Amino acid sequence: MNTLTDEKIRSYLKYSGDIALTVYKTTDSTNLRAKEAALMGTPSLSVFAAESQSAGRGRLGRSFYSPTDTGLYMTMLIRVKPGALLNLATIYAGTAVSKAIEGCCGLQTKLKWVNDVFVRGKKVCGILAEAVTGKNGIEAIVIGIGVNVKTPQGGFPDEIKDIAGALDTDVSRAELCAAITDELIILSELDFYPEALEYYRARNLLLGMDVEYTLSGQKSHGIVFGIDDAGALLIQKENGDTCALSYGEATIGSKNVKHA
């Protein structure tokens, strides 16, 4: 697989402005490198990318499988206004990744709330947005993106093989990294325009699905009927009431019925 380098990524970038780009052969976590840089005053739109990670992380404290040569692991540092919502940052990142994959790979995507991108019914990307807090509250958000570009030799580990998939196209990691960077820059420069949320809603994998979710420490079932303007998942509960899930996880249930 093509080596990931600064020069190769820049050769595909459409953005004409100046961005700081750091590429690692391997690192523990691109999010950790970006958070350290944010506290040192590194400017917005800085990108950190790696061919592999030794301590890749996902949401809810999970590890993220980050093998050498077959994946793209990248983080963008974005300076934001105080009070920024992490849910929306994750949703906008999902929109950017979806646009990049569909644009340069020609593959259709679905977006599973709140941080997964699916292709051919399999998860090909996970996203982890984290806040960097300073004296005035949230000063920056680092958006970590891990994409399975190729299926690893021997397949995925047993614990994720039923859900994990890969793009498996001829598009290089450098081209995909550039495409995602371009899409994230467009979103950030337009202050994360509302159309991104509409795009995400149109590709909502969970829409009309029966899901299991946890709210106030209690597991429940319900039917997903939308995503609100704050990025929360809207669920109609079994008793007919509705709720907005702003944090946590929704797992596809067994009923899979459409919302009337």
What order do the helices and strands follow?
A: HEHEEHEEEEHHEEEEE
The SS-based structural class is alpha+beta
Shape: globular
If helices are DSSP runs of H or I spanning 4 or more residues, what is the number of helices? 5
Alpha carbon gap, first and last residue: 47 Å
Round the Cα radius of gyration to an integer and report it.
18 Å
Largest sheet features: 7 strands, mixed
Helix content: 10-25%
Strand content: 25-35%
Strand order of the largest sheet: 1-2-3-7-6-5-4
Number of strands: 12
* Average pLDDT for all residues: 87
Low-pLDDT sequence parts: 256-260
What do you see in this structure?
- The chain has helices spanning 6-12, 30-39, 86-105, 173-189, 195-202; strands at 21-24, 46-50, 71-79, 110-112, 116-119, 122-134, 137-148, 210-215, 218-227, 233-237, 242-245, 250-252.
- By secondary structure, the chain is an alpha+beta fold.
- The strands form 2 sheets. A 7-stranded mixed sheet has the order 1-2-3-7-6-5-4, sandwiched between helices.
- The longest helix has 20 residues, at 86-105.
- Residues 256-260 have low confidence and may be disordered.
